[in-house]
Amino acid sequence: MPSQPHAPAAEDVAALIEKELRRDINTRFLRGMPAFKADSDLPEKFKLLLTQLDKAERRAGGRRT
Of the candidates 8, 35, 63, 64, which lies 20 to 30 Å from 16 by C-alpha distance? Predict the structure, then answer.
């Protein structure tokens, strides 16, 4: 009976997806998509929270746990 090919662990898949999303070409593409932009009519409270989240992600090197 032939053996099944090894399936990558969920962590490996997540790391690969994160790596691909961080590539310059994908980052530029995703920034141009409306779903990845904050609405200009967001309440100020949410804008502040998004700003804080961006800063925290940059400090953490963009890694999520």
Answer: 35
47-61 residue pLDDT tens: 889 889 889 888 887
What is the CB neighbour count within 10 angstroms for residue 15? 13
Nearest Cα to 62, choosing from 2, 12, 21, 11?
A: 21
DSSP tag of 9: P
All structural domains of the chain with their residue ranges:
10-59
Q: What token pair was written down for 32? A: 């141009």
What SS3 string covers the chain? CCCCCCCCCHHHHHHHHHHHHHCHHHHHHHHCCHHHCCCCCCCHHHHHHHHHHHHHHHHCCCCCC
